[in-house]
Design a protein that fits this description.
Layout lengths: L1 H30 L63 E9 L4 H9 L9 H6 L2 E6 L2 E2 L14 E2 L4 H6 L4 E3 L10 H14 L2 E3 L1 E2 L2 H4 L3 E5 L2 E9 L15 E2 L8 H14 L4 E7 L10 H13 L3 E5 L7 E4 L2 E4 L4 E3 L10 E10 L2 E13 L2 E4 L10 H13 L4 E3 L5 E3 L7 H4 L1
Parallel strand pairs: 1-2, 1-15, 2-5, 3-4, 5-6, 9-11, 11-12, 12-14
Antiparallel strand pairs: 1-16, 7-10, 8-9, 13-14, 16-17, 17-18, 19-20
Length: 429
């Protein structure tokens, strides 16, 4: 019995020592940073290690509300529209308009142009005219090879169509036909005039295939500025020369208060809203004089009241005064440019009226003095002795005409305000 007890004690001590050793071994491994493997997520029977196995269940399904339900469908592309930058308004500037007086390449003028070339009458002024943004002349003639003169001998004007090449080469953009010579060689020649100008690319106003066209407005846009041109004739013409509803002719008006004049003035009120600058040509007055008639003053001012920004007069073949009415210029007569009166102190003294405008209207004016001789027009320059003293003569003439209206011209032809010199004691006496 004693031996059996000793054996039992010995076995118990042995088992206790083994258990302590195992525990120490496990503690040492744990302190060495060895992490025991996680339990296997398997339903299979694992070997008994003395550690209970753990079964991890899958996460429960979560139902999202309809508005937040996840989807794997590709999102529809969202079209992004980039707004276009606002259009910048076209920058407007100034427009230079050169206006020349009565022009007719007829008779001896046509003969010389035929011999020397169609550019001969224009040689001296083509640089000025073609350098302008818009160049306009009063075409005091028909342009045709047909017809018989309806005027007394020597007063009917007809320009050969081939001469229009010279107009184009000189830079002429448009012509006024509202005058008393457009219909000189009859109805067919008048129609030829429209056709020949159109074929040459030259615009026209003041006459047309019917009254609406004759009274019409020509708009030329340059540098963002719309410049309108229209014209009327007051000088006597027979009824057959005037445009009507079904008859080609000139835009003919009558006395200041006549129905024709008042109807045209109503047109000007419409035209005022159609362009930035409205220029109206008025063919009226008396020939060979520097004085302005009451009719010219009255009707020109009515045109301004109706919306005209500038009134340009003609018919006298002479230069006449300029006045400002309601802040707008009236040039009572621009005289001749290339015309049959030559080499004299009345009709031969001429000028190009170099006008600057912007969207607001008139800006400034410069005169280019000219002299008609040898069946052409000559450009005069300050200090140059061409034709003696013609240059200062023309400026002195214009100063004498315009000073009473508060205007003057300097030595370079620029229009300025006229300031009367103070009275001297001698003058006061």
């Amino acid at each position: 019995m004693k031996h059996k007890w000793l054996i039992a004690v010995f076995a118990a001590v042995f088992l206790l020592a083994v258990a302590v050793g195992v525990a120490l071994r496990i503690g040492m491994k744990s302190n060495d940073g060895v992490v025991p493997e996680p339990p296997q997520q398997s339903a299979a029977t694992e070997p008994d290690t003395g550690v209970p196995s753990v079964t991890v269940s899958s996460a429960p399904e979560i139902s999202l509300p309809p508005e937040t339900e996840a989807t794997t469908a590709a999102a529809e592309p969202v079209e992004v529209t980039t707004p276009a930058p606002p259009e910048e308004p076209e920058e407007s500037g100034t427009v230079r308009i050169c206006i020349g007086g009565d022009t007719s390449i007829d008779g001896e003028f046509a003969d010389f142009a035929a011999q020397k070339g169609v550019d001969y009458p224009w040689e001296e002024i083509s640089e000025v005219m073609s350098g302008a943004d818009i160049a306009v002349v009063n075409l005091e003639t028909c342009v045709s090879d047909r017809g018989v003169s309806e005027k007394k001998e020597g007063y009917g004007f007809r320009t050969p169509p081939e001469m229009l090449e010279g107009f184009v080469n000189a830079g002429i953009d448009a012509v006024n036909l509202a005058n008393n010579h457009t219909r000189d060689f009859g109805y067919d020649a008048l129609l030829d005039t429209f056709e020949n100008l159109g074929s040459s690319g030259i615009e026209y106003f003041g006459a047309g295939n019917d009254l609406s066209e004759a009274q019409g407005l020509l708009i030329i846009e340059k540098n963002g500025v719309k410049v309108g041109f229209t014209g009327a004739n007051r000088v006597y013409l027979s009824d057959s020369c005037a445009a009507s509803e079904d008859h080609a002719g000139v835009n003919q008006i009558g006395s200041a208060d006549s129905s024709k004049t008042l109807a045209y003035i109503e047109k000007l009120k419409e035209y005022d809203s159609m362009c930035d600058v409205l220029i109206v040509f008025l063919h009226a007055g008396e020939e060979e004089v520097f004085e302005v008639t009451d009719y010219q003053k009255t009707v020109s001012r009515k045109f301004i009241d109706a919306g005209a920004d500038i009134v340009v007069g003609g018919h006298s073949h002479t230069l006449q005064p300029i006045e400002f009415y309601s802040g707008k210029p009236i040039i009572y007569s621009i005289g001749n440019l290339i015309f049959w009166h030559v080499d004299d102190d009345i009709d031969g003294l001429a000028a190009v009226f170099d006008i600057t405008v912007d969207k607001s209207g008139f800006v400034g004016l410069r005169l280019h003095p000219l002299f008609i001789k040898n069946y052409k027009v000559y450009y005069l320059k300050e200090g140059e002795r061409k034709f003696g003293t013609r240059y200062p003569q023309i400026l002195e003439l214009m100063n004498g005409l315009c000073n009473p209206y508060g205007l003057a011209f300097d030595g370079e032809g620029n229009m300025t305000e006229y300031i009367a010199p103070p009275e001297t004691p001698e003058a006061a006496e």
